[in-house]
Write a structure and sequence with these properties.
This protein is α+β, with helices and mostly antiparallel strands and 349 residues long. It folds into two domains: 114 residues, no CATH class; 228 residues, 5' to 3' exonuclease, C-terminal subdomain (DNA polymerase, domain 1). Helix content is 62%, strand content 11%. The protein is built from 14 helices and nine strands. The chain has a five-stranded antiparallel β-sheet. A two-stranded antiparallel sheet has the order 2-3. A two-stranded antiparallel ribbon has the order 4-5. α6 packs across α7 and α12 crosses α13. The protein is elongated and about 90 Å long.
Length: 349
């Protein structure tokens, strides 16, 4: 018993040293996030696990020191002999059985947690596809149906190299330049060849340019922009600032694309949940991050989950027809990746 008390005492003192480290780490996270716009996800995870360690590791220590939070009426004024009896009886009758039950039923959960994989599904090039869908741009639709990689095309123009030479990292970085023209970007402040890309974008995708003008003209008329799903955005004080530009232009062009894209992702979630239930899967939809759907995949269900998610996303047009009476002309694709967590993902073929 003496050795156990010494061990508890030493462990409690050691773990309590982590409290200032945890506090400093939290301050660093807040300063980085709100003053420098830097997200330290790894450090946030570190603080979360450290908090759990401090809470659990110090539980025995504070109980040993009799400094844990206690709510009582009779115990406080009782004799030490009575307190020892109460602690012993309640410990044997309640505490130990509860610890045993929690430990017993946690074994399977802990074991499963190491085997579960985090799968993320993303609608390939969703913003571009939604913009083509809403504008009904003929060139954009042709590129999509032919399977053209719009992000690779953008990267080749920005990087002044052939599409075959574009790396995965360059393609990822080029996505910003693909999306900017969709929301009225002009390339101001960029290099000359990038500004030329922006102007040529609207020449190639004239349907998108015309749709932009219709959106802004509509906002000038009544301040309202509406999506096929019924979302309405209202700008009551829009004024013309240039020949082809109005105030709040970026929001007027951005919101319907982002809003309709979000609705598409939610429809995909509904269809995925429906398919998961139909197949009696143990895997769970966890959350959406922009246009990605994150799933905790139960061991041995990976292939089935991939098929279910593909079915859910690529069949959203049927759901849109049923719910909104809207016929989508642009097909949707899906990119699926997975790993032990969301930060450690590899793309599945």
């Amino acid at each position: 018993m003496i050795y156990m008390e010494k061990a508890i005492n030493s462990l409690g003192k050691f773990i309590s040293l982590m409290i200032p480290i945890m506090t400093i780490s939290m301050i660093v996270i807040i300063v980085a996030r709100y003053f420098f716009g830097i997200g330290l996800t790894g450090l946030q995870e570190f603080v979360m696990y450290m908090h759990a360690l401090v809470f659990l590791g110090c539980a025995g220590y504070v109980h040993y020191k009799d400094e844990h939070v206690r709510v009582d009426i009779f115990y406080r004024e009782s004799s030490n002999k009575y307190k020892r009896k109460v602690n012993f009886i309640l410990g044997v009758v309640f505490l130990l059985p509860v610890c045993f039950v929690i430990g017993y039923f946690s074994i399977e959960i802990i074991d499963m947690a190491w085997e579960i994989r985090e799968v993320s599904t993303e609608a390939g090039g969703l913003e571009f596809r939604v913009c083509v869908e809403l504008s009904r741009d003929s060139q954009g639709l042709s590129d999509i149906l032919k399977g053209k990689d719009i992000h690779r095309q953008t990267a080749s123009i920005i990087g002044r190299k052939s599409p075959e030479e574009v790396t995965k990292e360059e393609r990822q970085k080029a996505k910003a330049y693909t999306f900017l023209p969709l929301f009225g970007g002009t390339g101001a402040g960029e290099a000359e060849h990038i500004r030329a890309y922006f102007s040529q974008f609207y020449e190639v995708y004239q349907g998108i340019y015309s749709w932009h003008q219709r959106l802004m003209d509509g906002a000038l008329r009544n301040g309202i922009v509406e999506t096929p799903s019924g979302r309405q955005y209202y700008w009551p004080s829009v004024v013309r600032v240039k020949k082809d530009r109005v105030s709040n232009a970026t929001q007027i062009l951005n919101y319907p694309v982002q809003g309709f894209a979000a609705d598409i992702v939610q429809l995909a979630c509904i269809r995925a949940r429906r398919k998961f239930n139909e197949l009696n899967l143990k895997s769970k939809l966890i959350l959406t991050v922009h246009d990605s759907i994150c799933v905790d995949v139960y061991p041995n269900e990976l292939d089935t989950v991939k098929e279910a998610l593909t079915w859910a996303m690529t069949g959203v047009n049927k759901e849109a027809q049923r719910r909104w009476n809207y016929n989508m002309v642009v097909p949707l694709e899906i990119e699926i990746s997975g790993g032990n967590n969301w930060l450690d993902q590899k793309e599945y073929a």
